[in-house]
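#onboarding

Welcome to the new folks! Below is a worked example of what a typical request in this channel looks like: someone posts a single protein sequence, and someone else replies with the predicted structure as tokens. Don't worry about understanding the tokens yet, we'll cover that in week two.

Example request:
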Amino acid sequence: MAKVYPNVAVPSLALPAAAAAVAGDEEPVTLTVWRKSLLFNCRGFTVFDASGNLVYRVDSYASDSRAEVVLMDAAGRPVLTVRRKKRAIGLVGGDQWLVFPGEDTRAPPLYAVKRRGAVIVGGSGGNKSMAHVAACGGAVGGGRYEVEGSYARRCCVVYDERRRAVAEVRPKEAMVGTDVFRMVVRPAAAGMDVSLAMAVVLALDEMFGKPSLLRNWSS
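Example response:
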């Protein structure tokens, strides 16, 4: 069976800082994402780097009814919070998932991830436009991104405004199902950092993943 458990976490390891260190590098960052929490009676995600070290966690207790999920680093420090904002009755457009810094949902959001109202298919085997990512007032120098492909198959790409692939979700080579997959991020491409890419994955999982990570996203 393929190894998905991490090595012992290095206390000083914090991927957001590491990601910033490689932001000027052309080498992509490759992570293994496991759709499972390492804590008992929790649902969530566990993310490892190429060496097998724990770098991100999402732990949501089954009894938790909050309409948000917190992305944490290996030490449990909050990095970003993804919160669903339901469309108001009578307004045009669908729900959106707002990305906040840390766990402060009172601060201006950094990004908004919105599910496309219709699936666009370009011919047989063409790409699907699944979601749109746009910078909000809290983001400095942020841009717009389009997500195409199939999250259900763990095969999708995030494109920037110049149609450069800045992040990808890929199936893992080993036969481990869809709960373990790879995420490849190119931080130098267009300001897409690793934390934002992981937040987009969390939003996609709420849009297209089954079962839902949280029981209640009702706010």
